[in-house]
Design goal:
By secondary structure, this protein is mainly alpha-helical. 81% of the residues lie in helices and 0% in strands. The protein has ten helices and no strands. The protein is globular, with a radius of gyration of 26 Å. The protein starts with 6 loop residues before the first helix and ends in a 33-residue tail after the last helix.
Length: 377
């Protein structure tokens, strides 16, 4: 009876059930990751921070400092930098808030005058009725707002718990990351253990390169846009620059959102012309990032097509919200390097991989297996 079934149908059926099994397995993995998200997200963030801090630990170890003390020193330095930066940003925000409130009040007064005397000819009574309706709506939904505040307090508690878990995991990653990886590879069959070890080292090397390059790009973005905002005279320059720096860790989309916030604040506080100037500055910095910084800093080891980056961010945002958008591109970079290593690395020993200084051409893509092109003959 099997011989009576067309070959195309048999092949299609075989591919179909295998595809369904793969999709089911991916669904189970994603469901488990979502169910244990309060554990998985801190571990993933700790891995990102470990990729950023590990070169510092290795440098101190080479200078003769014991690994435990090196990890502790790098952790203390990182916490001091982040804590100092946050404190400075908060102080600058508090100091600049009165000027922003004054400028916003002046802008609202100008808008009200334009609504009264402009082409719309809206009288003052209609404007007051609109404001009163907003106040009444807030009062009517006070219980929902209170419930939202309680939910926010619960979320803050979860965030603090996640931060503590992240710090705890990060300490072990910095102190004994190599030992943890060796323990993980013991679960791989011995005949392929070495190739998996090499692929894992390639993947972590790509993560180190990605985090390092992204931090450099974020710093350039923050400085460039911050200087432009200071020249234009926009209030809250330091907090907006910090927002640009943090948003740059979500490639493409983060810079767009942070730039939009800067333009809107300039529009409200300084006016239309200054907002256009800030928009031009943001576009210029984004062009510098997209065409110069990212291709130069990321290199072949973590080079990803912009379409792949956007799709990865969109998928991460749908699957896990802001955390998914933040972690999707690093995960894609690790998978890209690891899969290329599994496919093309044949005779590479794990000890030959320099994880902290992986070169751009360390992974051979192989020879193309076709001479077909997109060009018209």
């Amino acid at each position: 009876m099997t011989n009576l079934v067309p070959t195309g149908l048999r092949v299609s059926a075989a591919l179909a059930w295998r595809f369904m099994v793969v999709i089911a397995a991916l669904y189970v993995v994603m469901w488990l990751a979502g169910y244990f998200s309060h554990i998985m997200v801190p571990i993933a963030i700790a891995l990102l921070l470990a990729a950023l801090m590990a070169p510092g630990v290795e440098r101190l170890v080479k200078w003769g400092v014991p690994r435990g003390i090196s990890a502790l020193l790098v952790m203390i330095a990182g916490i001091a930098v982040v804590g100092g930066l946050l404190t400075f940003v908060i102080i600058q925000f508090i100091d600049g808030l009165p000027d922003l409130q004054k400028q916003v009040s002046d802008s609202l007064a100008q808008i009200q005058d334009w609504l009264n005397d402009g082409p719309l000819h809206i009288d003052e009574g209609q404007i007051k009725d609109f404001v009163n309706n907003i106040i009444d709506t807030i009062q009517e939904n006070q219980s929902a707002i209170t419930q939202g505040a309680i939910t926010t307090a619960t979320t803050i508690g979860e965030i603090l718990t996640g931060l503590l878990l992240t710090v705890f995991v990060l300490i072990f990653f910095l102190y004994d990351g190599a030992g943890i990886w060796r323990f993980v590879t013991r679960g791989v069959p011995e005949r392929v253990r070495e190739r998996v070890d090499v692929a894992g080292r390639r993947g972590f090397g790509a993560l180190v390169s990605y985090v390092r390059a992204t931090a450099a790009v974020a710093l350039v973005d923050a400085v460039g846009i911050g200087v432009g905002l200071a020249i234009v005279g926009v209030p809250l320059v330091i907090p907006l620059s910090a927002l640009v720096f943090l948003s740059a860790f979500v490639p493409i989309i983060g810079a767009v959102l942070a730039g939009t916030v800067a333009v809107l604040i300039t529009l409200v506080a300084n006016g239309f012309i200054q907002a256009l100037i800030v928009l031009a500055i943001v576009i210029a910095v984004m062009q510098l990032e997209g065409h110069v910084l990212q291709p130069w800093l990321l290199g072949r080891a973590v080079r990803l097509h912009p379409l792949a980056v956007v799709l990865a961010i969109a998928a991460g945002l749908i699957a896990a919200g802001i955390a998914g958008a933040l972690l999707s591109v690093p995960l894609l970079a690790v998978l890209n390097a690891g899969i290329k290593s599994l496919v093309h690395d044949d005779d590479v020993e794990p000890g030959q991989i320099d994880v902290m200084h992986q070169s751009d051409k360390s992974i051979d893509d192989g020879e193309p297996d076709t001479k077909a092109t997109w060009e018209t003959p």
